[in-house]
Structures are given as C-alpha cells and as structure tokens.
Amino acid sequence: MREATREATRTGRVAGPITFRTLQLKPAFTAYVEGVIDAFEQKYPDVKVTWEDVPGDGYNEKLVADAQAGALPDVVNLSTDSFQLLGDRGMLADVARLDPAAAQDYVPGAWEQFKLPGKGDGVYAYPWYVTPEILTYNKELFAATGLDATRPPTTVEQFFDYAEQIAARSQGRYAAFMADPKGRLPGDWQKMGVPILNDGRDRFTFDTDKAVAWVQRMKDLYAKGAMPRESLLKADDVNQLYGSGKIVFGPGSPGFVRDVKRNAPQVYAGTQVAGAVTGTLGHIGIYAQSLGVKRSTEHLDAAAEFAKWVTNGPNQVAFARSATIYPSNAKGLEDTYFSDRGDGTDAETVARAVGAEQLRTAQLDANTLVQWTNQVGDAVVREVQKAILGEQDPRTAVRRAQEEANRLLVRANAGGR
Q1: pLDDT digits (tens, 9 = 90+) for 196-253
Q2: How many Å apart are CA 324 and CA 242, to the nearest integer?
Q3: Are strands 249-250 and 126-132 parallel, antiparallel or unpaired?
Q4: What's the CA gap between 389 and 382, in Å, rounded?
Q5: Looking at the structure, do residues 154 and 273 belong to the same domain, yes or no?
Q6: What is the dihedral of CA 17, 21, 25, 30, to 10 degrees?
Q7: Membrane-spanning residues where (predicted)?
Q8: CA gap 93, 304 in Å, rounded
Q9: What does the alpha-carbon distance between residue 274 and residue 33 come to, in Å, rounded to a whole number?
Q10: CATH number (domain holding residue 27)
Q11: Same domain, 186 and 267
Q12: CB contact set of 64 (below 8 Å; sequence gap of 6+)
C-alpha cells in the first residue's frame, strides 16, 4: 500500500502542515480539542494543524481506504482494532524508536498495549485515553440474597459462585449479570489463566479444560436464571435493567456509574463500586485509545510532537475532567482528581479512584488481543452460544471455536484480511 512505501525521518525542525483525525469528538469536545491545537500552534508557530472528526460507523474501512489512496492523516485516533489494521500493514511509525524516552511518560500497561507481535520492542502509537474495568453492583440486592456487600467477588470463579446464589435466592425477581459472551471473552479466559495463544502467537490454544469449564458454568447459570434470557443473543439495555433493579452487577465501566447517577438516582444510592474481578494472574480489562503517527508523514517532527502534546499529562487530565475517561499518562494519573474518594459514599467518585488505582498497579489486558479480531470473536461466540443453549456440549463448542479461530488466523497471517 502506498502509505507503507517509505519511512519518514526526523529533521529536528517542528514545522509544516499536519492533519489530525479523531473519532466522534464533535460537538461535545470541540472547544477542548481546539484549545489543545491552539496552544500547540502557539508553541510551534511553524506548524498548522488541520483537525477532522469522523463518525464511528465504518471508521476502520475508511482508514484502510485512505491508506490505500495515500490519504491517511498524519496523526490519527486509533482504537485497538484500527491500530491493528494499520500497524499490521506497516503504516505506523515506531514511536519507541523515534522517542525512546517517551515510555516513562505513560502507564506501563498502556504503553505495552501498542506493541505488535513479531515487532520486538517497537511501539506503534502514543497511548491516549483509557478506561479500566471495575466492578459495579447493587449492594441492596446483593445483600438481600445473603451475600456480604463489603466482600464482592474477586475472581471469575467466585463471581460465578455469587451469581448462582443470587439466582437461587432471588426467585426470578432479578438476575445476577448479563450473559454477553462477546464482551466476556477472551477476558474471562485470560483472568483464569487459559492460554489464548501459543508462544509463537500464530495459533489459538484456548481449547483447554478451564475454557470448557467456563462454558459449562455459563450454561448452568443461564439455565438457573442467573442471566436475563434475552441477553445471550441480543444486546439488552443494561442501563434500563440495572436502573430498574432487575440485575445485580452492572457493566464494569466508570461511565456506566455516571449514567446510573443521572437516570436512576434511587438505584444509584445503593450502588457499590469495587476493584475489577481479576483472577490468579491479577489481570484487568482495559479499553484504550491511541494516537498513531503516519509512517510516511511529510512532517514527522511536527506529527510526533503533536501526538505527544495531545497525550501529555495536563491535556489528558483536562480531557478526563469533562469525560468519563482516564489518562494513560503517568503524571496525569497522579492528579488528585483521580485519587480522592471523598467520604466513600458517592459511587462515581469512588469509581474514579478505584479505576485509577487499578491502572497504576494492576497488570493490564486489552481483552481483545490483536489476533482476537471481530471475526474471531464472532466465531467463538457462535459456538459458545450454542453450548449455553444446550444445542451442543461445551467441549465440542470450545473445540469448534478454536478450529474456526485458527482458520481465520491463518488466513489473516497470509494477508487475507
């Protein structure tokens, strides 16, 4: 592809026009982004930044099409999926090589996420804003089923044990959690120590007794009413279910807590926040956005300095104060805004502190490994859903899921994406 034909080099001069693409930030964050750009241009008057913001629908397809046409922006907002698409095609600059000291500026787990298999210590994007996984639950429903609201589950296995007790004692009045196997995998398996990939990272290896046990447990819990029945095959409105007291555990997102506060204040008053369910490895899930620098940009110094500017501590903190996100920048995360729990009674304040603490200390997983593409996830979920519904046994489901995942991986490695 045209974008990968040459690699830009630093000149030592921060100058020239560059384009900056973001994903769905207008109009809510227009003033913030424009302020960041204006301050950068004041510091570097020889740079002109052109900002474009695009919708989420078809974003990955647009990136690939732009790359093929030689129209990729100089600095581009990337999710895990889009980072993989461009990184695998050699279109992103190695920022660890361009800027060796940058690693110390970011939370290690976030920095490590933007490495690519087989590319050694190269890092192909500057980490931007992140959202860690937390645990949110209705402490009143939790206690009503005989569980201690001050002792939430800490492992996947314990989470399932608690869900079983909730299902048994709620008598159908409410469920424990949403089925959502696509959202739970491969994260649950990672936390349980299931080997997702071989050492060469070119074959899936999750067909294990632990993975089979997970599917069996999901099947049993589904049959016992621990999950809303519709949540297995379609995306129920979890905000509505949680806000009406029909489910104990909410999504593991700090943004969800804010939504409950706005829309269901009575349930919010009984909402508790704790550290994410992890496992023997201490892993948590993380949703991360990054800024990639086009490998063939005409103005590498300007593009790299701008990406680093947007992701510095003060700019990330300012962004996080207006959105339910966290800085990947280590100094930004040290801001007292992310450590103050108040009096411990306001769930949103506690959620912010809990999420920040986990980002600083826990080992992080993307929950969507670069090899675990949307296609792989869909293939695995199809087989898992059949097992949960009793249409095939769990061992067969895991075996077939791995076979199909490896077929897709081989095709991807051969350039058939």
Answers
A1: 999 888 899 999 999 999 999 999 999 999 999 888 887 668 888 999 999 999 988 8
A2: 19
A3: unpaired
A4: 11
A5: yes
A6: 10
A7: none
A8: 9
A9: 32
A10: 3.40.190.10
A11: yes
A12: 85, 86, 89
Q: How close are the terminal C-alpha atoms of the chain, in Å?
A: 14
- Which amino acid is residue 256, in one-letter code? F
Helices 313-322 and 30-43, axial angle in degrees (round to 10): 170
Q: Is there a contact between 158 and 310 (Cβ–Cβ < 8 Å)?
A: no
Domain limits for position 385 = 134-283+367-413
320 shares a domain with 259: no
Structural domain count, the chain: 2
Structure tokens at 224: 């016992």
Backbone angles phi, psi at 121, to 5 degrees: -90, 10
Beta strands in 24-68 (DSSP E): 47-54
What single-letter DSSP state applies at residue 391?
S
Give me the residues of the chain with pLDDT under 50, please.
1, 366, 417
Calpha distance 339→318 (Å, rounded): 15
Which positions ≥6 away from 194 have C-beta within 8 Å?
Answer: 186, 206, 208, 210, 211, 214
Peptide bond into 394 cis (omega under 30): no
The pairing of strands 363-365 and 47-54 is unpaired
Do the Cβ atoms of 28 and 82 come closer than 8 Å?
Answer: no
8-state DSSP, 106: B
| Residue 126: its H or E element | strand 126-132
For tokens 């129920």, name the residue. Answer: 236
User: What is the pLDDT, as a whole number, of residue 1?
Assistant: 47
Query: Secondary structure of the chain: what % helix, strand, coil (to 5)?
Result: 50, 15, 35
Pairing of the two strands 16-23 and 47-54: parallel
Output the pLDDT for position 366: 47
Task: Find out whether 291 and 22 touch, Cβ atoms under 8 Å.
Answer: no
Q: Are 357 and 185 in contact (CB under 8 A)?
A: no
- What pLDDT sits at residue 105? 92
Which has the closest alpha carbon to 251: 159, 157, 137? 137
> Residues 98, 295: contact at Cβ < 8 Å?
no
Same domain flag for 383 and 244: yes
Cβ contact 178:137 at 8 Å: no
Angle at CA 134, nearest 5°, toward 132 and 138?
150
Q: What does DSSP assign to residue 227?
A: S
Signed CA dihedral, 78, 82, 86, 88: sign only: positive
Residues facing 271 on adjacent strands: 138
